[in-house]
């Protein structure tokens, strides 16, 4: 006869906590805030010190408020951050009542954030999580987001006799219909017409990707072709937006033979596609296609974001599986993480509870919806990527500007369940990629220390998806030499960074030694104005062999299946 043994009380409480977390707070929004509150209440001395500091600031602001409301001039006690454009209109400085409103909001925001970052008795990750979610709430409650506390919106409604509010209401209804706060109008761009227009052909297609081979723009090209592994989190044409911004066209004009991945937009039928499938059927396929078409024994491979992570896995796998016939001579990474120890603000979505919740949702559908992924990334920069468009669209009645990068950002893709669940758990949560033998590809354990090929790695100063200090760690985990570049701007514009005159951006560059910290490298790296593209092109040209006559885009073995940009990129 079976006997039911009582469950251990601690295990039972842990199980109940997990179920409550999954049902009530699946993304862990409330838990870190509650933990921070309890931590302060259990440290009364530290709390008293913080309240004393805050009281001093409040008294100073009260005195400032009285002076401003009585018509006297005074310097703002709290100033917006340099990149905070919410209070840029002169009315927030010139009109006393609005200046005082702004100052009290900024003081509250800064005071709460400072306290959360200094919470005693919590781990650094818990403090960051609590501060993140409080910051999102404070951003949402900004006076600029509401008509009656936004003087600019009120002024525009008077100047337009209410027309701005009517337009804003229609913008709101349009966004409500599509279920998103739009950053671009769907009719402004069409892929293949005014985006992704560089001539070429789809020369290979399988269930995961199309390979596009671009038509040369020079009579001669370097012997070693360039293979670009784009991220499947978004569509490939961010590197081919228009002729002026296109990295693809720039490389063609420098005499390189360019191939690129265009990934299929997954549906429920791809639920069981794994991350290693993207390596073995994706990265390996485009490398082989480029070798077959050009006849070159090796290629240069470049990977962007998650495409770079997949390329890194491929490099370790290929070095172990076929060291005598390594298909890649040298490689490049753009804003790529291989060490996920501190992945930036995105860590607020990466814990056991959040992954368990997302896994259940993905398992039910077979994929992660692209809008959910985009919303998470936009939440990381909610002021500039959400509330800016709410204010300008709904309160000011403005249409989204025709900006190609924002249109691309809204052109979302889905993630297969098996691939994405593994990616979040094994890389973000467990950080296994940097541990030798912890991950296998096609049954073969991989070790980043076996990668000996020279690497050119590019990170971006303001990257909130792949923070540059963390991206720098790749140099410590591979055996090959690393030339590291730090571009100004963020995850997209730090890479989509064509040469312009006068130069808009700058970059640092220098060799990264295995024992370097990011700060040590930063201190000695050379600073240059302008785009890093010419520096990279020179590095490539010195390694990609002699120039040979340009060859046809297609061959008998690889005929034209479609004109670029192909069919997969158009899938919704």
Highlighted features:
disordered N terminus, eleven-stranded mixed beta sheet, 20 helices, 13% strand, Rossmann fold, 572 residues, 3 domains, alpha/beta, 17 strands, two-stranded antiparallel ribbon
Short summary:
The protein is an alpha/beta fold and 572 residues long.
Outline the structure in words.
With 572 residues, the chain is α/β, with parallel strands linked by helices. The chain has three domains: 27-145, no CATH class; 152-179 and 370-403, no CATH class; 200-369 and 412-570, Alpha/Beta hydrolase fold, catalytic domain (Rossmann fold), CATH 3.40.50.1820. The chain contains 20 helices and 17 strands. The protein has helices spanning 9-24, 30-41, 44-69, 91-94, 96-117, 124-140, 151-159, 163-178, 247-253, 275-294, 306-321, 352-365, 370-380, 382-395, 404-410, 417-429, 468-471, 474-477, 518-524, 533-541, and strands at residues 200-205, 209-214, 220-222, 226-229, 258-263, 299-304, 328-334, 367-368, 415-416, 440-441, 444-445, 455-460, 482-487, 506-512, 526-529, 547-549, 562-563. The strands form four sheets. An eleven-stranded mixed sheet has the order 15-14-13-12-7-6-4-5-2-1-17, sandwiched between helices. A two-stranded antiparallel sheet has the order 3-16. It has a two-stranded antiparallel ribbon with strand order 8-9. A hairpin with a 3-residue loop joins strand 1 and strand 2. Helix 3 (44-69) runs antiparallel to helix 5. Residues 1-21 have low confidence and may be disordered.
